[in-house]
Fold Late embryogenesis abundant protein LEA-2 subgroup domain-containing protein.
Amino acid sequence: MKPQPPPIQGDGVAKKSRAAKASRREMLKVLYVLLALASTPFLYYIFFDLPPKFSLQINSAEGLDAAAAAAQPLSTIVNMTLHASNRRAPGRCYRHGEAAVCYAGFTVAASRTRVFCVGARDALDVPVVAWADGVTLPNEVHDRMAAEQRAGFVELEVDVKLFDRESEMPTWMWCKVTTQGEEPSDVTPCRVFATQNWVSDIAPRWMQ
């Protein structure tokens, strides 16, 4: 009987190696699919359900010039326009909110904001009138405000808190605005503190 040649071990090793590589490729494909499925809601939340953007303009500010005359209590009326921009597909409504106008950390006027809704991918101008009677400021703050009045400008900070109808968590924003005498101030972007805002600005411009 003619002896048979021993089996070539290399063929078996090569087959096992190819099978292992194919198995790893299949596992990677499955992992990629699972990762894509898991990240889809997160990516939608960041890039497509974008948070709103706000800016603010002070149209007029009455009563602040009293600081230039003497260190006496102020009675103020600050007329503002809040520009709201909704960057997501559904509309967005706010049931109420609050606005506080501050100078050097002291509140010089405050008000509630009205109920308003912004349509899908739309913008809206919301009037806000803040006021206060008998505002007392420290002498050094009076002196600083009087000096700015003589220079023709006063730097104010406006803090706004809005409550979305869909959430109990408020949207906070901080706006730094410089009045220019009797002229309306420039429109100033507000810094919004909300869940999505820390990453939303990296979205492509066409999404914003």
In short: Residues 196-208 have pLDDT under 50 and may be disordered. Residues 43 and 169 are 21 Å apart (CA to CA). The two ends are 83 Å apart (CA to CA).
